[in-house]
Amino acid sequence: MEKTRILILGGTSEARRLAAALATREDLDILLSLAGRTEAHAQQPVPVRIGGFGGAEGLANFLREGGYHLLIDATHPFAERISANAATAAERTGTRALAIVRPEWVPEAGDHWHIVADIPAAIVALGPAPRRVFLTTGRQGAHHAEVAPQHFYLVRSVDPVDPPLALADVEYILDRGPFTLESEIDLLRQHRIDAVITKNSGGTAAYAKIEAARLLGIKVVVIARAPIAALTSVETVEAALEAIDHLVSPAMKRGV
């Protein structure tokens, strides 16, 4: 019996959980694609490839040459380029495709949110007066803080910011979620943070900083998700597993 070949575009906890759930199935041949070095350090439950594809056409060629039946986009909500490439490649090759898209965070009573379009706008939203800022957008894009050197920045990322920021008052934390509410409260108090900058990533792993800011009355500058060319999507790994069962059924593979 021919196995169903599935390419998972990963880099998130959802991708790893999905791969683990599918790894034991004898009717499936799974490949997990990771964009960079960070994810490669963690042990993965299925075979892995590292690196990009060379745009939408490169991904389309990879799907064709590999004979893949199904493409799963389980990348980060802010990986707009690869998600757009995935949608284009699926359309060009006629490959069935599915995306896992975490629900966005929404403000609750007690939140002090300022929603912006991108990191430069978030820095501007801090205002001219010196502030103590918890910058949690990751290492990519952190350099935008250099235009506002009057602030103190506490920068948290998984990988080091390289080169370091050209700022006089900055500290770095290398850490990966999930984070607890108690630890986030302690961190914000310890560094006397009065503003948080975050992407609206959704999910639970990084939500504790939102809760902590709410409880401490701290302003949160939230970078909104950009609209992208979307595949058919689900919000959870469990829903993705149900959809995959339907998509890889013999009738669906025959195009019935």
From TrEMBL:
<dbReference type="InterPro" id="IPR003723">
    <property type="entry name" value="Precorrin-6x_reduct"/>
</dbReference>
<dbReference type="Pfam" id="PF02571">
    <property type="entry name" value="CbiJ"/>
</dbReference>
<comment type="pathway">
    <text>Cofactor biosynthesis; adenosylcobalamin biosynthesis.</text>
</comment>
<protein>
    <submittedName>
        <fullName>Precorrin-6A/cobalt-precorrin-6A reductase</fullName>
        <ecNumber>1.3.1.106</ecNumber>
        <ecNumber>1.3.1.54</ecNumber>
    </submittedName>
</protein>
<keyword id="KW-0560">Oxidoreductase</keyword>
<keyword id="KW-0169">Cobalamin biosynthesis</keyword>
<dbReference type="GO" id="GO:0016994">
    <property type="term" value="F:precorrin-6A reductase activity"/>
</dbReference>
